[in-house]
């Protein structure tokens, strides 16, 4: 019922339900209210429906996912072009006689359940018994945080990608919006745009699988440049400075489109009396199963509830009005899917009972809403194990994360003695090492009692951490605790390191960034969580390389323990991640644990020996120390900074026999994995083209069938599921992956020697391969060094070298290699 006066007079409207926001959720709620004959008003602050979809780029294909979820709404929705969907909704809004009020910007909500007053910009008021907030988050985008972000060529919206011609355009963010913008700008080659998209990491945690696939295809076709592990450093006129894993790089850039997500309009929502799940900017409101907030009578649905998918939003709009109309028996549309998922579990619980159990027991789920938990469960598996049953075995491949909903597990920490175990209790997680590093399982984990776990796929776990800050903090806290126990050992318990964990901070360090500076006071110590560090000292006015520190090492303890100033500078060799630990808490731990103190002092003495080695050569600095430092720097610049194993050739010993290449080919279906002559050389150390087996392999970042894995000895290998897409070859910065077809089987060595059959040892010539292919065209697959995994005796290239020139080098041996070069 509306009371209105003459022109310019304030209008007051009285309804049962006031719906704020006409996106898919609000529109669906209004449609249900209209169908049920409930007095309502749909308040839209613009002059058109569904502003978020209205602002999608022109011609955008809108997806209707998840396909398994039934649509429950009085308005139609199926996958199609943005324009077609909006036209249908306009028609159905009119036919359903939905009461829409445009240009109605709500500035304040007061009152209580049954008697709310909504104040609109301009002075009009709405009186309603209940309020549904469906306002979304797109009006509150996350802004770029770097110098120059305010320049005019930075924008946060793309309306029509066909408007831009012959521009170098960089899209920041690889969620669905960013990927779709990049694809739209690169769709027509005739436009002449050079399109680059920046991915902060190596995964696409926030994007739909279909969009990721389209982006990968565009990258493979050369239409879009995808840059991984890259973030904005500075915006300049016509240029964009980027932080990459190897340091800063400047690219041409005429336009930046930032699609780095958005956050709820928290100030307005909290002013309405609604509480959020946590203080984090991207947290969502606390909601009941019927979408009611902590302010009785105010309900939240759609993106503001943490459900950004259109089909979810529309179902919520339908459901919330049914709940308000007294339908207490209505179950969510995803109920049958979850019921089927939970059916094999013991206990005969309902879906809501299982969700309550998981939400209350599991730490990483406690600060997400019931709605978010339902969505997470759709992308996860639930499993039951009996006492003694293995959840997974040591060295099994796997990057999923497990959360214990009921029971506990035992971790077999010693490979050859399964009786030595460490417990993990109910509510905690395990498998986080595989999630973070991509490595194989580091231990066997068994059920200590009857067990129920939620297994989150890597994609689901990363999405949870990206959208729920509290969950990300919980995973980080647990991984830090376990990393501390692994590194320091000495019989420490969780209680011993609790103070360190509480004060720990995870920090990123771009390539070349100084983490510790020589001469500074030392208050904290640092664990290298990811990447690697270079340790240097200034001698005779020059920075001199002291050592290389791979992930898992720690630095800074010398100054903390003896109170001295930093004795060396530590900087990131590549883009890295460190854990900063409070020094005072570490000193208190050392006082309590003499064995740990002794271990730390032993490490200090080893590092002092390295310092003495350098100091003792001051007089002959130019010919000795400088050579040593330059050799070490050469190794770092050629991929040693992120390697776990690399092939080096001493050219003073190499006779050019090519036995290494021939042995490699003979061990791998006739295709060599290395090129001895290719690569770079410093002094007499040569780095041939062969895989470095990086700590965090770039080739793994974009493998559709997940064919690239890490073996038990750290080797990175490609299994038979490779589909030959070439993504790994494009992503490898060292050019060590080739795409080729496996040649026909060669005759035996004896047949070649005595009968002259076959091409002989090594890789067969292209002529022989073509002649013996018998008309069958073999598909190409990715081929790279696998460290001769499964072959007795280790790498064939090293075993076949008659002079000992070929050596495989691990991080611990890098310093020794540099010393040998200096001594020669």
From TrEMBL:
Keyword Electron transport on entry: yes
Superkingdom of the organism of origin: Bacteria
Domain Cyclic nucleotide-binding: 364-465, 488-607
SMART domains from the UniProt entry: cNMP (SM00100)
Keywords: 4Fe-4S, Electron transport, Iron, Iron-sulfur, Metal-binding, Transport
One Pfam family matching this protein: Pyr_redox_3
InterPro entries assigned: 4Fe4S_Fe-S-bd, 4Fe4S_Fe_S_CS, cNMP-bd_CS, cNMP-bd_dom, cNMP-bd_dom_sf, FAD/NAD-bd_sf, RmlC-like_jellyroll, RnfB_subfamily
Record-given protein name: Cyclic nucleotide-binding domain-containing protein
Domain 4Fe-4S ferredoxin-type per the UniProt entry, residue ranges: 645-677, 714-742, 779-812
């Amino acid at each position: 019922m509306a009371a209105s006066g003459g022109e310019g007079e304030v209008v007051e409207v009285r309804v049962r339900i006031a719906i704020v926001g006409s996106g898919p959720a609000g529109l669906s709620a209004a449609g249900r209210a209209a169908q049920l004959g409930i007095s309502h008003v749909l308040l839209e602050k613009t002059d058109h429906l569904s502003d978020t979809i209205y602002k999608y780029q022109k011609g955008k294909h809108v997806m209707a996912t998840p396909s398994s979820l039934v649509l429950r709404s009085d308005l139609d929705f199926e996958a199609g072009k943005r324009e077609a969907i909006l036209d249908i909704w306009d028609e159905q809004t009119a036919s359903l006689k939905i009461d829409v009020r445009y240009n109605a910007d709500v500035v304040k909500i007061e009152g209580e359940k049954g008697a709310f007053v909504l104040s609109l910009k301009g002075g009009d008021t709405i009186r309603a018994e209940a309020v549904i907030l469906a306002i979304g988050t797109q009006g509150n985008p996350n802004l770029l945080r770097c110098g120059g972000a305010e320049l005019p060529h930075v924008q946060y919206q793309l309306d029509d990608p066909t408007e831009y011609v012959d521009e170098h355009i960089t899209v920041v963010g690889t969620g669905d919006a960013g990927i779709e913008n990049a694809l739209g700008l690169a769709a027509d080659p005739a436009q002449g745009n050079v399109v680059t998209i920046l991915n902060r990491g190596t995964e696409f945690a926030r994007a739909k699988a279909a969009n990721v696939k389209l982006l990968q295809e565009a990258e493979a076709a050369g239409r879009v440049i995808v840059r991984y592990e890259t973030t904005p450093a500075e915006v300049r006129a016509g240029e964009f400075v980027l932080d990459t894993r190897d340091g800063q790089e400047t690219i041409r850039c005429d336009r930046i489109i930032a699609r780095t997500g958005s956050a709820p309009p928290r100030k307005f929502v909290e002013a309405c009396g609604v509480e959020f799940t946590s203080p984090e900017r991207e947290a969502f409101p606390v909601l009941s199963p019927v979408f009611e907030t902590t302010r009785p009578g105010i309900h939240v649905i759609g993106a503001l509830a943490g459900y950004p998918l259109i089909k979810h939003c529309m179902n919520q709009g339908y459901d919330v009005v049914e709940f308000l109309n007294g339908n207490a028996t209505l179950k969510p549309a995803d109920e049958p899917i979850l019921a089927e998922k939970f059916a094999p579990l013991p206990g005969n619980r309902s879906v809501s009972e299982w969700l309550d159990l998981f939400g209350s027991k599991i730490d990483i789920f406690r600060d997400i809403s019931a709605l978010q938990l339902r969505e997470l469960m759709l992308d996860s598996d639930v499993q039951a194990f009996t006492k003694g049953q293995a959840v997974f075995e040591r060295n099994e491949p796997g990057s999923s994360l497990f959360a214990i909903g009921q029971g506990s597990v035992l971790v077999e920490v010693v490979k050859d003695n399964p009786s030595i175990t460490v417990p993990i209790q109910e509510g905690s997680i395990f498998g986080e090492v595989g999630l973070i590093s991509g490595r194989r399982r580091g231990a066997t984990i068994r059920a200590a009692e009857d067990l129920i776990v939620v297994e989150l796929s890597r994609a689901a776990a990363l999405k949870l951490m990206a959208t729920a800050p509290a969950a990300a903090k919980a995973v980080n806290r647990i991984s830090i605790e376990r990393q501390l126990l692994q590194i320091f050992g000495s019989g420490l318990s969780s209680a011993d390191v609790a103070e360190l964990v509480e004060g720990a901070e995870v920090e990123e360090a771009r390539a070349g960034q100084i983490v510790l500076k020589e001469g500074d006071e030392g208050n904290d110590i640092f664990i290298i969580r990811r990447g690697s560090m270079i340790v240097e000292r200034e001698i005779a006015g020059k920075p001199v390389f002291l050592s290389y520190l791979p992930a898992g090492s720690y630095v800074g303890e010398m100054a903390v323990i003896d109170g001295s100033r930093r004795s060396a500078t530590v900087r990131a060799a590549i883009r890295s991640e460190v854990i900063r630990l409070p020094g005072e808490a570490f000193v208190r731990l050392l006082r309590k644990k003499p064995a740990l103190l002794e271990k730390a002092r032993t490490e200090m003495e080893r590092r002092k020996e390295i310092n003495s080695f350098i100091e003792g050569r001051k007089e002959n600095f130019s010919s000795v120390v400088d050579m040593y430092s330059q050799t070490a720097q050469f190794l770092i610049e050629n991929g040693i900074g992120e390697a776990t194993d690399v092939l080096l050739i001493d050219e003073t010993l190499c006779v050019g026999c090519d036995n290494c290449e021939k042995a490699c080919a003979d061990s791998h279906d006739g295709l060599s994995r290395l090129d001895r002559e290719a690569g770079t050389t410093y002094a007499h150390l040569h780095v041939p083209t062969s895989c470095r087996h990086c700590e965090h392999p770039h080739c793994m970042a974009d493998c559709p069938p997940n064919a690239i894995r890490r073996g038990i000895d750290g080797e990175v290998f490609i299994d038979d599921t490779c589909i030959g897409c070439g993504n790994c070859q494009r992503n490898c910065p060292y050019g060590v992956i080739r795409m080729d077809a496996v040649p026909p089987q060669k005759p035996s060595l004896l047949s070649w020697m005595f009968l002259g059959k076959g091409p002989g040892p090594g890789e067969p010539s292209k002529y022989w391969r073509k002649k013996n292919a018998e008309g069958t065209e073999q598909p190409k697959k990715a081929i790279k060094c696998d460290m001769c995994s499964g072959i007795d005796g280790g790498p064939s290239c090293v075993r076949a070298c008659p002079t000992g020139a070929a050596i495989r080098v691990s991080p611990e041996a890098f310093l020794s290699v540099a010393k040998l070069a200096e001594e020669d």
